[in-house]
Amino acid sequence: MDLDPARWRTLEPTNRSAARVERILARFLGALCIVFTAQTVPYTVAEHAAARPGWSWVLVVLTFGTLAGLTVAGLLGRVGATRRWAQAGSLVYLVLLLAWPILVGDPAGMLGRMPWPWYLCSVLLAAASFGFRLRWAIVFIVATPAVFVAVRSTPPGGGVTVPHALVDAGYAFVLGAAVLLLMTMLRRVAAAVDLAHATATAKYTAAVRAHEHEVERVQVDSILHDSVLTTFITASRADTAADRQFAVAMATHALSEVVATHALPGVETLVTIDALRGRFEDACRELGIDVEVTTTGPSEHRLPVAVVETFIGAALQALTNSVQHAGPGPVARQVFAEFRAGGVVVTIRDDGVGFDTETMTPGRLGVRVSIVERIRNIGGVAEISSRPGEGTTVRLVWPDPDRPALRAEPVRLPLD
Q1: Which residues pair with 398 in a beta bridge?
Q2: Burial bucket for residue 236 (CB in 10 Å: 0-12, 13-18, 19+)
Q3: What CATH number should be reported for the domain holding residue 315?
Q4: 150 lies in some domain
Q5: Which residues pair with 395 in a beta bridge?
Q6: Domain count of the chain?
Q7: What is the pTM of this model?
Q8: Residue 239 burial (CB < 10 Å; 0-12/13-18/19+)?
Q9: Higher-pLDDT residue of 246, 129
Q10: pLDDT digit string, tens, across residues 267-305
């Protein structure tokens, strides 16, 4: 699993799918309003002569006014406004149907004609499906065609037979039910997608946090060994003035490391080559370690701060081991840092007495935790080679060349 905090922190639980579906439905409803309104206007004008003056025009203005608001809000994708206009338009339409028998001043003029509100029935049933909760949308889709059947069988509604009225209302009912079913299915699918996304994000976050805790544990172990235990051991073995001076320098550096543990930069910070080299040389100067540092690679190369902190800690531990175990006499120590595109190789060498790696204690904390585990924990690899009388070489590589996935996308591990 790729536990890159820079990646998982962008995966916050959201309702993006549901919101996207609602915007699509709102725009679809706005387009429907244009089509059905354009179809209805000629019939409204044609039946003007049979309408009773006064309240009939009020309801006409309210009906087409809410349709205009629904169209604009829907096409703009304003979900909240579309829902409110849909609710208002559906209620106005229901009032229009209920009041239709008293809005017609000349019932004889309507015989055999289709009332113009019928042409809006389908779009306003769709509006009710969008605007109301499922329960109330079902009530509206059932009640509105029933009211239309009752009105259609009266003289102001055309005076047709009940079976004829049922056929007219059935078309609108089937279309409205189909739209409600489609909207409900889309909403539930979107909700399921968002729930799956939130669940996966929560599990991914938990895994990353567990990884962070493990990294923090290893880091604390490394600091305790590198900066605290090593200082105590060095101080207890300080028999000469030079040894005591080195122990004091190590104690000062240990205090700095402990204080800096809670003030490290963020995990997404990138560190330049010059900054890395400067920090490393300052630490060596503080410890009194005489070492020659050489860097090669593009000057604009940058590394995640977690990699920099880990490499500095591992390299300092290798140099500390060299100071303590390379033997008496002048010992030349060199550090080579080779920066490549997407990675770094650091080599620490000394020409001291060396040791037999085959007889080295496997559980030796200075090598296992402070060097090998540290580098492995960020996706790199540490190699230690030495022979008696031939010095020691420690090679640190990031990322591990045997793990190409890490080469393509470097892992950035948390430090706090």
Answers
A1: 344
A2: exposed
A3: 3.30.565.10
A4: yes
A5: 347, 383
A6: 2
A7: 0.51
A8: exposed
A9: 129
A10: 445 777 777 777 788 777 776 777 888 888 776 677 777
Identify whether 75 is part of a domain.
yes
Range of the domain at 347: 264-408
Q: Which of 198, 218, 240 is the last residue of a domain?
A: 198
Q: How many CA atoms lie within 13 A of 255 on its CB side?
A: 6
Alpha carbon distance 305, 376 (integer Å): 16
- Residue 308 phi/psi, 5° resolution? -60, -50
Reported as a single tens digit per residue, the pLDDT across 245-274 is 665 566 555 555 554 544 444 444 577 777
**Structure tokens that stand for 115 in this block:** 């009332």
User: Which of the listed residues 177, 198, 219 is the one where a domain comes to its end?
Assistant: 198
In Å, what is the CA distance from 261 to each residue of 40, 232, 256, 282?
A: 73, 20, 9, 17
| DSSP calls for 88-130 | HHHHHHHHHHHHHHHHBS-GGGGTT---GGGGGHHHHHHHHHH
- Lookup: tokens for 140: 């509206």
